[in-house]
Amino acid sequence: MILKKLLLLLPVLLLAGCATGTFTRVTPTEQPRNTNNLYPVEVIFNSQQQTLRWDSIKPYVVANGQPYPLRPVPMLNNRWEGLVPVPPTENTVKFRFKFDYLYNAFGQPKPNSESSPSYTLKVLDGQ
């Protein structure tokens, strides 16, 4: 009887520990205004989730509700870079990183995603 109850709780306990991604922003919070209005952002994503399929990751930076793709940084593991647009009439933009991926489960791989906290990029006009 006790064993049956434990077996019923096992999937819940396993799933509770799955969302373990960490995001490390590696770009400055302020950047000088440039002529193309595109600003580089970079992030390191790590996860302790052993079932995560690293080859399936689709990373994005989401700014003003729009997703923009990130690309892997050459020769560095778990690090991605991309560009965020900031119109010339704006001085700040809020953004977050979102990583969609598959993880191994019984049967077919299942989709999942993790999002970073919200960050703010401040664009500085020339003096």
Structural class, by secondary structure, is mainly beta
Tally of individual helices: 1
Largest sheet at a glance?
A: 6 strands, mixed
Mean pLDDT: 87
Unreliable runs, pLDDT <50, ≥5 residues?
Answer: 5-17
What is the helix/strand order? HEEEEEEEEEE
Counted beta strands = 10
Specify Rg, calculated over alpha carbons.
19 Å
Q: How many structural units, i.e. domains?
A: 1
Approximate strand percentage: over 45%
Helix content: 10-25%
Distance between termini? Answer: 74 Å
Characterize the overall form.
elongated
What does this structure look like?
The protein is mainly beta and about 130 residues long. The chain has one domain. It has one helix at about 1-15; strands at about 20-25, 30, 40-45, 50-65, 65-70, 70, 80-85, 90-105, 110-115, 120-125. Strands 2, 4, 5, 8, 9 and 10 form a six-stranded mixed sheet that branches. Strand 6 (about 70) and strand 7 form a beta hairpin. The chain is elongated, with a radius of gyration of 19 Å.
Give the gist of this structure.
This protein has about 130 residues and is mostly beta strands. The chain is about 10% helix and about 50% strand. The protein is elongated.
Key traits:
127 residues, mainly beta, six-stranded mixed sheet, four-stranded antiparallel sheet, 1 helix, 10 strands, 12% helix
